[in-house]
Amino acid sequence: MNNKDDFNxxxxxxxxxxxxxxxxxxxxxxxxPEPLPSAFDPMGEIQLRGQAYRGLxxxxxxxxxxxxxxxxxxxIFAVLLHAALTTKLLTVWIFxxxxxxxxxxxxxxxxxxxxxxxxxxxxx
Length: 124
Prior knowledge:
- The structure is a single chain.
- The protein is elongated.
- Helix content is 62%, strand content 0%.
- The chain has helices at 4-8, 42-57, 63-86, 90-121.
């Protein structure tokens, strides 16, 4: 048969002085940053472009970079739109459709950046 004292050996001792108790907190492990891929091989270049576009779409960029992106990609889109409307070539329309991808990414980034700014300006 089990004795009641055998069960009490797993419970904390009630006679401990709280002044002598200490809790050890382990040191924080250093974060190992994800190694950047090499942009000289094709897969590394694709991965770096994906990281850059994820940063743009998530709104994690400076305002000047966002405005510069709208200016650069918007100018290219405007030139391609003018070329598509003045010529009868199908390839220009294909390039115009492909050029909308960075504009969509910048649109998502602008919306994310504006929503972050509005939530941080609100009083709690």
